């Protein structure tokens, strides 16, 4: 049962159990409680527990770099993530690695046969890009890839523990908290004023009177009356022209 706790985060112990030893029973007999199918007995043991805490300073090895975060391994086992807003971008910037279709991607295979495993891992991490110093162009973590950070948070999922780190001078400053309520450019831009609508042209009196009369008449009756008036005006115009 204790073996099943190894490399797991145990809340009662507030850490990850790495090893246990000196197991001994505290009583020569076990007890049966109610309908429990197991016999219960008290034991005593010694355990080695990895128990980091917020504010602790640790050193991890860089194993992956991306524009959004840097991944580390502590003791070659425990994962650490340093978000972008906890990297001092005033001094550091992300440099993208070569594209996969680059003819020089991967370098000369013959030259890499004698490389050490640590150097190969570092080269693989740099394929996706790297964080470099703006003035010296040195890699984040130096030549050996070891980076000191401050623990600012812990994540526990499926009894596995991972850390969130920061390399800011003041890692707990509110300035390093991302602001998700930033106004968009559309919200910042003032609304354009609408052009004034042109004033409507005055309606001739004859049309206005016809409109008033048409409100009291049926639509078809109004159309017939207007057609008769138009025919009468044409006939009168022809008579005037002949005269």
Report on the architecture of this protein.
With 243 residues, the chain is of the alpha+beta class. Among the domains are: 3-50, no CATH class; 56-100 and 122-172, Beta Barrel (OB fold (Dihydrolipoamide Acetyltransferase, E2P)). The chain is 21% helix and 30% strand. The protein is built from four helices and twelve strands. The strands form four sheets. A five-stranded mixed β-barrel has the order 6-7-8-12-11. Strands 1-2-5 form a three-stranded antiparallel beta sheet, with no helix packed on it. A two-stranded antiparallel ribbon has the order 3-4. A hairpin with a 2-residue loop joins β11 and β12 (160-166). α3 (205-216) packs antiparallel against α4. The radius of gyration is 41 Å and the shape is elongated. It starts with 8 loop residues before the first strand and ends with a helix. The model is unreliable at 107-114 and 182-193 (pLDDT under 50). This is RPA43 OB domain-containing protein. Residues 101-118, 198-219 have a biased composition (Acidic residues). Residues 52-167 form the RPA43 OB domain. It comes from Phlebiopsis gigantea (strain 11061_1 CR5-6). Residues 93-130, 172-243 are annotated as: Disordered.
């Amino acid at each position: 049962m204790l073996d099943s706790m190894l490399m797991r985060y145990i809340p009662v112990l507030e850490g990850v159990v790495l090893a246990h030893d000196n197991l001994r029973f505290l009583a020569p007999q076990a007890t049966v409680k109610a309908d429990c199918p197991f016999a219960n007995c008290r034991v005593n043991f010694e355990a080695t527990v990895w128990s980091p805490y917020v504010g602790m300073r640790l050193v991890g090895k860089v194993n992956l770099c991306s524009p959004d975060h840097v991944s580390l391994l502590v003791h070659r086992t425990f994962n650490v993530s340093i978000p972008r807003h906890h990297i001092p971008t005033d001094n550091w910037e992300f440099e993208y690695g070569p594209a996969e279709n680059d003819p020089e991607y991967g370098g000369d295979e013959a030259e890499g046969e004698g490389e050490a495993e640590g150097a190969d891992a570092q080269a693989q991490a740099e394929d996706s890009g790297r964080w470099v110093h703006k003035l010296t162009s040195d890699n984040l973590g130096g030549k050996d890839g070891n980076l000191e950070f401050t623990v600012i948070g812990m994540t526990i999922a499926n009894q596995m523990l991972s850390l969130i780190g920061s390399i800011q001078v003041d890692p707990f400053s509110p300035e390093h908290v991302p602001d998700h309520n930033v106004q968009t450019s559309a919200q910042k831009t003032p609304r354009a004023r609408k052009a004034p609508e042109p004033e409507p042209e005055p309606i001739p009196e004859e049309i206005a009177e016809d409109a008033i009369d048409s409100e009291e008449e049926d639509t078809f009756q109004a159309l017939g009356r207007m057609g008769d008036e138009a025919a009468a005006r044409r006939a009168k115009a022809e008579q005037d022209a002949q005269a």
